[in-house]
User: What shape does this take?
Amino acid sequence: MKKRIMYSVILALAILMFLLSVSTALATWATSGWTLNKISISRISARVENYFHRGYNYPESVVIMPGDTVKNIVRVRNICSIDIVVRLSYKITWVSYDEAGDVVPDAELSSDNVLVTYNTVDWEYEPEDGYFYYKGVLAPGKLSPAVVNEIKLDESTGNEYQNRRAHIDIYMEALQAAGEAITIWGKTFEDLDIEYEEPSYPVEVSKVSFVNPSTGFRFENNDGDLFSGFKRLLPAECRTQQVEITNLYDYNTQIFLFASITEQSYLNNINYRQIKKLLREHLTLSVIADTGEVLYFGPIWADAYSTPTFIEEINKVDLGVFAPNSSKTLTVNLWVDKDVDNKYMGLFGDVAWVFQAQAADPDDIWETPTPEPTITTEPTVTAEPTSTPKVDVTPTPPDTTPPVTGDKSLFYAAIVGIILSLGLIAAVLYRMKNDSDIKANAS
Assistant: This one.
């Protein structure tokens, strides 16, 4: 029994030695490079602009007598960078003030005597929820037609309203026009006779080159921003970006890609947790090869406990083997969950996109390049005009020495390790079989 346990331990160690030797021989170098990408969610904002009587806001000195009509123009301006749809409610309440100066609504006084002229051409009233819906889409910076033009105090208004004040409460809501967000209000564009075409974004191309194991990766445009189009994202929309990857190295190279969140000291703890939740739960990424093969489909940052330290826990996309001086173009799609709500509005955060490269050929053993000798000439000062220059052939050392990521001795040692481990495995298996045969014959 003890002998069998000993054989099992030796066999396990021999297998482990074999696997390590194979991995060392097949991947004698590995290097990585990363670039920073800022992902952001759009902010939706709009403003009610109210022209009342002779000016904006509500002058306290305005007195309206029964039968008077005054201007009260209510419009909405889009003050964000995306198309929006808006709705607005308009409520009038007669109020008084208590001894502390606080507003006290007077439920006994009806507001039916305040006659409002509404714009029912550009706005549609929904009695079920009390909102006026703008029958159009507001582009950035644009101002809507007035929903209210004027108000009139009915001639029948009695003395019970004397010295009372009318409070006009205007409540406005805005949604993005894209992604059919209007359905949140139980409406469609068809319901409001709106003709709207979803915005299209140009497909940008980022270029990444792998130079060699010493130099690593080079990011050639967009200031290194791999996904420059993933800005001001909206719920329920999809963005597309292409990444052209070129292998400038003289050997076949296997390349991987994954995302890692970085330390972001400019964010408070709440926003930092939100950006991590956004990457894990609300953003879906697909990576498609130029052959049409889907290399990855899933969240940007998958594991809830992943950190940049534990790279193996983060979804790593195998981009395949790149032949020397060849390129592949990846199409990357990013979907935003329709359930991304207001707490994510205006949120932005940094994502580090990491590329990893490793040897794909057994013969690819990277060695630190030996610098070429620098030959300098320096004239010798003599009295003889026929003197010849003195030649200095001492090589000039480089300013910095690139790191050695592999050498041939390591490769040959790995090959020896493979041979020895295979021999040991064979010997142990033979000995175990021989002992079993002896034991069987003895019984």
Notes: The first strand starts at residue 30 and ends at 40. The first helix runs from residue 2 to 26.
